[in-house]
Amino acid sequence: MNRLESLFYVMNWFYLFIAGLFEIAWAIGLKYTEGWSRLWPSVLTGVLMIASFYFLSLAVKTLPIGTAYAVWTGIGTVGAAILGMILFDEPRDIVRVACIFLIIAGIAGLKLTSTS
C-alpha cells in the first residue's frame, strides 16, 4: 500500500469511528423523542441518523462492508449500552459489563484483521 492509499485507509477508519459516534447519539436520541412525539428531539435524532449513515457511506468506499457494518453497529451498541447505564440507570451487573467487553474485543479483532 503506497502512502496515499494508506492515508485513505486511515481516513476511512476515522469516518467509520465518526459514524459510530453519531450512531450512539441517535440511539440515545430515540429515548428523548418519546416515540417521535416530541418535535425537536425527533428532528435532532433524524439529523444524527443521516450524519451517521453519511459517514458510514464514506467509510465503505474502501473498507469491507461486513467489517465496516459490524464495527459501526458495535460502536453504537457499546456506546448506547454504557450511556444507558449512566443516563437511564440501566442495569450494571457483571454479566452485562462482560458482554460489553466481548463486543469491544470483537470490534478490535475486526479492525486488526482488516487489510483493505
Give a structural overview.
The protein has 116 residues and is mainly α. The protein has one domain. It is built from four helices and no strands. It has helices at residues 3-33, 39-59, 65-87, 94-113. Helix 1 (3-33) packs antiparallel against helix 2 (39-59), helix 1 (3-33) crosses helix 3 (65-87) and helix 3 (65-87) runs antiparallel to helix 4. The longest helix is centred in the first third of the chain and has 31 residues, at 3-33. The chain is flat and about 50 Å long.
Which descriptors would you attach to this protein?
116 residues, mainly alpha, 4 helices, flat
Instruction: State the order of secondary-structure elements, H for helix, E for strand.
Output: HHHH
Low-confidence parts, pLDDT < 50 over ≥5 residues?
A: none
Please report the total strand number as a whole number: 0
Overall shape: it is flat
> How would you sum up the major sheet?
none
Number of helices: 4
Distance between the termini: 9 Å
Strand percentage: under 5%
Question: In total, how many domains does the architecture comprise?
Answer: 1
Q: Over all CA atoms, what is the radius of gyration?
A: 16 Å
**Fraction of residues in helix:** over 70%
The assigned structural class equals mainly alpha
